[in-house]
Amino acid sequence: MPDNIIVETHFKPDSKMINPEKTKEKSPEFPCKKLILEPEAPLTASERKILDKIQKKFSKNDFQIEITDDKIILYLHSIDLEAFKTCIHGLLSTTDDKKVNKTLILELVEKISRIRSYGVKGGKRVFAAYNDERKVEDRQSKVTRRGQYYYAQDNKFPKKNNTAPKKLENVVICDDSRHALQRLPDNCIDLIITSPPYNFGLGYDTSKDGVNWENYFHTLFAIFDECIRVLKYGGRIIVNIQPLFSDYIPSHHIISNHFIEKKMIWKGEILWEKNNYNCKYTAWGSWKSPGSPYLKYTWEFLEIFAKGDLKKDGDPKNIDITADEFKKWVVAKWSIAPERKMVHYDHPAMFPEELVERALKLFSYEGDIILDPFNGTGTTCVAAKRFNRKYIGIDVSQKYCTIAEKRLKEIFPGTNSSGEDC
Ligand SMILES: C[S@@+](CC[C@H](N)C(=O)[O-])C[C@H]1O[C@@H](n2cnc3c(N)ncnc32)[C@H](O)[C@@H]1O
User: Fold this and answer.
1) Cα separation of 5 and 161, whole Å?
2) What confidence tens digit (pLDDT) does each residue in 11-45 have?
3) Which CATH number does 156-411 carry?
4) Pocket-forming residues, ligand 1, beta carbon under 6 Å
5) Which of 374, 377, 382 to mutate to test the pocket of ligand 1 (most atoms within 8 A of CB)?
6) Domain map (residue ranges) of the chain
7) In CA terms, which of 79, 167, 283, 323 is 20 to 30 Å from 23?
8) The pTM is what?
C-alpha cells in the first residue's frame, strides 16, 4: 500500500467536507488531525463493519472515522494507543472473513503510531490543541533576551579537554576522594555518577555518617569541587541524594545551590521512585491537623549538572540507547526498585545497577570514561564495564574496594581490573 496518508495539524473539520449521505456522521466539533487512508479497492461490507465496531468501542470525542467510497478518514483528537491496538488485534483475530483486508485495518494503527508530535493526557496521546493551555507568549524572544542559565553564563571553565592517565582507567582506588581526585588532570572525565553518604547515621565501614552538617557539606563540597575540575567541558555530574526530611535538611537543594554557585548548568532532576516510604507508616506529624503534618516521600533525587555546555559531543556510532529506552527515560521519574543485594555485598546504601545503566546510556557515549568518587561496592564500575565505558571508582573503605574488585571479577571473569590499596 502506498504511503497515502495525509496528516493535517489542528485541522478543524468543515462540515462541507463530510458527505452526510454517505457517512451520516456529523462533522466533529473538536480540533483534530485528519488522517486519510486510500485503499486500493472499495471497502467491503465486512471492513466497514469492523471499522464501525472500532468506532463504537471509543468515545467520539477522541476520534471519528468517516468512510467514503474510496477513503477512510480519521479525525483524530486523542487516543489510548494501547487500547486501540488491543481492540483492533482482538477484532481481527476473531475474523477469518476473506473480505477483510487486515493489512489495511492495521495500517491505521501504524500510521497513528508514526505521528511524532503529540501531548499526553490521562494516558492518551493528544494530537491536536495539546499546547493551547500554555500561556507563555513568544517564548523564543524571551530566551533571546534573557538567555538560558543566566547563573552559569560567565563561567571560566577551560574548554580544552584532556585524557585521564591510562594507569587510572578501569581501576578501583582506595582513598579519600579529597586526595585521590588530585591525581586526575583537569577536564578528563566524561560523566560522574555518584551517591555520597547522606549523613543519616548509617553504619559505613570507615567513614562517619551523622556528623555536624557544616562539616558534612564542607567535606562534600571539597570533593564536588574536585569533581567539577576533572569533568570535561560538556561533561556531566549526576548526584543521587536523599534529603533528611525528618530534620528538614534539603540536601538536594543545598548541593544544587553549590553547583550553581560554581557556575555549573542545572540540566535537570530525576525522581527515583523507589515506591517505599522513608519513614514509618504511622509517622503523621500532627495527625489529622494542620498543626505540623509530616510529608512522606517514596523517592530520592538525581541532580544533574553540566559543565560549560548542555551539549556533549560524541561520535553518533557510540550511542547505545534505543528509541524505546530514550522515550521512556527522558520522562524524569524513574520507577526502579531499591538494590536487593545490600546484605550480600555487606554495604548499607547501594544504588541499583539499573539506575546507573539509564544514566549512562542517556548521558554518555560508549567508550566514555565514568567516575564515581563514592564508589562503595562498585555499582557504577560494574554498569560502566557492562555498557562498554571505562571507569574510575574511588572509596575510602578498603573493605568496600575489595568487594567492588571481587564483584567486577565475578561478573566479568578474565578482566584484569587492578585495584589500588589504601
Ligand atoms: C552511599 S555509599 C555509595 C554506594 C555505591 N553507590 C554502591 O552502589 O555501592 C557512599 C560511599 O562513600 C564512601 N565515602 C565516604 N566518604 C568518602 C570519602 N571522603 N572519599 C571516598 N569515599 C567516601 C563510603 O565508604 C561509602 O561506601
Assistant:
1) 48
2) 444 433 333 334 444 556 788 998 999 998 889 99
3) 3.40.50.150
4) 176-178, 195-197, 204-205, 207, 347, 349-351, 373-374, 376-377, 379, 394-397, 400
5) 374
6) 8-126, 156-411
7) 79
8) 0.79
